[in-house]
Design goal:
By secondary structure, the chain is an alpha+beta fold. It has three helices and seven strands; from the N terminus they run αβββββββαα. A five-stranded antiparallel sheet has the order 1-2-3-6-7, with helices on both faces. A two-stranded antiparallel ribbon has the order 4-5. The protein is globular and about 45 Å long. Bound molecules: nickel (II) ion. Nickel (II) ion binds next to helix 2.
Amino acid sequence: MPLLRIVHYPEPVLLTVGKPVSGDDFGSDLARTVDDMFETMYAAGGVGLAAPQVGLSQRFFVMDVPDEEGKADKLTFINPEIIRVEGEQTGDEGCLSFPGLYQTVRRDMRVIVKALDVAGKEFELDLEGLAARCVLHETDHCDGIVFLDRMTILKREMAKRKIKRLQKTGKWE
Ligand code: NI
């Protein structure tokens, strides 16, 4: 299966609110796209990948944050909705659309999220720590928000300067 091309900031699709997935969109094409996204995410060494990152302006993402035993936990979130948040965490974050850029981002510690799976069935999850961070980061992608927008002004300016440097050296396309 061919890997999908991951688009890099500042591609406009990353800064555009994704369209909700409608009932007609469910089916084999969507299932195939989800499979391709998992493969693309694993190949790139990521734990989450949202549709806009592969050029699709739609509200869904895939994620696999392994549990404590390192067991895979493949999840697909279609039309994700953050129901409730609690607490706070601060930690380094990366993004496959920002190659080589890691920056401290403050996020909620716990989220309750509602979404549809690839079969169109609704589910709700209560997640903490890295999984919560990932859900928030990927749901942001669905809303045209990138992690740059979640940094403090100082960190954002530093990050933008680093991106410019990487662009000049051809390490960012
Ligand atoms: Ni990202």
